[in-house]
Amino acid sequence: MTETPQRPRPLRVLAAMSGGVDSAVAAARAAEAGHDVTGVHLALSANPQSFRTGARGCCTIEDSRDARRAADVIGIPFYVWDLAERFREDVVEDFVAEYEAGRTPNPCLRCNEKIKFAALLDKALALGFDAVCTGHYAQVVRREDGSRELHRASDLAKDQSYVLGVLDERQLAHALFPLGDTVTTKDEIRAEAERRGLAVAKKPDSHDICFIADGDTQGFLAQRLGRAEGDIVDESGAVVGSHEGAYGFTIGQRKGLRIGTPAPDGKPRYVLDISPVTNTVTVGPAAALDVDALTAVRPRWCGTAPTGPGTYTAQLRAHGDETEVSAALVDGTLEVSFAEPVRGVAPGQAIVLYDGTRVVGSATIASTRRATADAL
Known about the structure:
Elements: E1 12-16, H1 21-32, E2 36-43, H2 61-74, E3 78-82, H3 84-100, H4 107-126, E4 131-133, E5 138-142, E6 148-152, H5 169-172, E7 175-176, H6 186-195, H7 217-225, E8 230-233, E9 239-243, E10 270-275, E11 280-284, E12 291-301, E13 310-315, E14 322-330, E15 333-342, E16 350-355, E17 358-370
Parallel strand pairs: 1-2, 1-4, 2-3, 4-7, 8-11
Antiparallel strand pairs: 5-6, 6-17, 8-9, 10-11, 12-15, 12-17, 13-14, 13-16, 14-15, 16-17
Helix pairs in contact: 1-2, 1-6, 3-4
């Protein structure tokens, strides 16, 4: 007698619904797959604006209403959870402190680590849910031994595994990404939303930093940290300009330097170093940005930690290309060497390691080594 394969049991799923098209379609797909889905919108701002401005920001009252309407159409219960204080402490204050220390943080990655798959997931599990569902483009693969792996999305053009590289195996065991295993364009996702009757089908995607709705990061930081005039110097230490706060610059920045003295060779200059102690910004030629090694701290592994040196590919920013690296854990820190020099690597950024499409883990860049002997 032939046994009939058993279908996976339905899960109790908490769908994080931002009010955008991706999370709405993800929730709809989870419900269509037979799961018992409840929608939740995270109120992350203590004083949310009423409306969004195009693709700027999120978490407005309008977004909450859009999420509720989508849940009504899908036919699932819906709640709004206030996580504003936790978001302020773990994401916004961390963002400000990192810039004040001369580093360049990634708040989306921190939000996934601290809010969506820590505060939200912990609360979901305490209430008896099995998984948290989001609209991220990535895949969770279950191995034969029951362990989970995080992989890139089937559609590499929309892959968001970089900002999920902070998730550990326990969190992956309770994560659901319904958009990650299908190769569909954004237009097709919008068309699916329209077929499902979801009014967010034509809503603009959210870009930039959600808690800086006007996109003026430097203005936001100035308001929080105050203006502090300092020098812009070249590699020799000669003053070539001034600034109103070293926190307003990032490694590799070219525009907005307001340098009065041109470079001797007439070529553009870039930010090479930021020193919050001396409130000094150092600029120089593009070649001085080349980095051939780095040290990263606070490694987090999407599964079992590597036991020895290995060769991987690495991604250094959310929409960056992969580059070949050698990496090893040394006394709890990650030592990474690049096969070819890379540019624009800044302390505070995350480095995410991959083995093929599998996400091995991530760490926060603490320091870099310049490729040229005469560079900083």
